[in-house]
Amino acid sequence: MNIPPGIDRLPLEDGTYRYRVRIRIKGHKPLSKNFKSLVHAKQWKRVTEGQIEKGLYVSFSKADQYTVADAIIRYRKEILPHKTNDGKNVARHLNRWETELGHLKLSRLNQSVIAEVRDRMLSENIRPDQLRSNSTVSRYLASFSHVLTTAVREWQWMNENPCIKVRKPKSPAGRVRYLSRNELVRLTEECKRSQNKDLHLIFLIALTTGARKSEILGLKGKDVDLENRIFLLFDTKNGDNRILPISDQIFEIVRNRSIEGSSFLFPSPTDPNQPVCIRSAWEAAVKRAELEDFRFHDIRHTTASYLTMDGTSTREVAEVLGHKSLQTTKRYSHLANAHKRKLVNRLEKLIHERPQ
Question: For every one of its 356 residues, what pLDDT tens digit does the chain have, with 9 covering 90 and above?
């Protein structure tokens, strides 16, 4: 049996053995731990020595000092305020994790208990006839995982993030619901007719730029550059800054609005320090336009789809939408193929057309 230096084989009264690992590295407190399995003893020795060398090792007693709730509370205080776009959703996710696992010491947190919560969330109805989606549960896991990663890398409360080892539910293929020409005309007219005076302009910005609703509603006066005809987006969902071009029609509307630097471009009529809520106005416009299965985020798909059908390259569409990965944008590639097929058919017809 090959027992490496630093591991002792200790016989027990029942005829079995224990394996004691001894780690002595200059400048670090000596460590010792017993294992029933030589395989586990070797693994712990290798991982622990690597963590010590990299300055990442956290003693078990430190992980036993803090709970999951302690980590979430600190994250809320130090990290969450800087998540400007998705902060509310992340806060909701963390409330659930604190309720489920907040009592556990970080030393007792493992992938098994996290997976139990994942499975529980997947089995819950958010409406009488609708289960919580796989994508939503994946976002819950991502929010919690970032807390634990921060606890490992920045606070050194843990040695590893067990959430990384938890399988994320498989998400369905990306949804591509976009407006037909007739639907586009109907919805545009209904947005104009809306009692919400901002809805039409918000719809136009979304349609011409592919911006997300949160990005548009978060615009402030300082983000509007009329001289260069652009909107400036800071700290977007993908963590990048982005520039949105202002079309001629939108420019004529925006330049006649009273805009102050720190004020929202679309302020709430009841609280100017908050953006306007368009949910009811939007749902009413969609209903009047007689659209089925159409959400605000689908405007973004409409932008990408029309750009693709007009011959815009995948990379260019990705730049407009702010996609980091071209794989996300490739969901629209079938539309480009359909467009190319039309061009080929037109060419074929031209080639075989008899001269007059």
Answer: 688 888 998 988 888 889 998 888 877 778 888 888 899 889 888 888 887 777 766 665 578 889 999 999 999 999 988 875 678 889 999 999 999 999 999 988 999 999 999 999 999 988 888 888 888 999 999 999 999 999 988 998 988 899 999 999 886 655 668 888 899 999 999 999 999 999 999 999 998 888 889 889 988 888 888 889 888 887 555 556 778 888 888 898 888 887 776 788 999 988 888 899 999 999 999 999 999 889 998 888 888 887 777 666 667 766 767 655 555 555 555 555 555 556 566 666 766 666 65
Q: Which CATH superfamily, name and number, covers 181-343?
A: Intergrase catalytic core (1.10.443.10)
Domain positions in the chain are: 7-57, 68-165, 181-343
CATH of 68-165, one of 1.10.60, 1.25.40, 1.10.150, 1.10.3470: 1.10.150
3-state secondary structure the chain: CCCCCCEEEEECCCCCEEEEEEECCCCCCCEEEEECCHHHHHHHHHHHHHHHHHCCCCCHHHHCCCEHHHHHHHHHHHCHHHCCCCHHHHHHHHHHHHHHHCCCEHHHCCHHHHHHHHHHHHCCEEECCEECCHHHHHHHHHHHHHHHHHHHHCCCCCCCCHHHHCCCCCCCCCCCCCCCHHHHHHHHHHHHHCCCCCHHHHHHHHHHHCCCHHHHHCCEHHHEECCCCEEEECCCCCCCCEEEECCHHHHHHHCCCCCCCCCECCECCCCCCCECCCHHHHHHHHHHCCCCCCCCCHHHHHHHHHHHHCCCCHHHHHHHHCCCCHHHHHHHHHHHHHHHHHHHHHHHHHHHCCCC
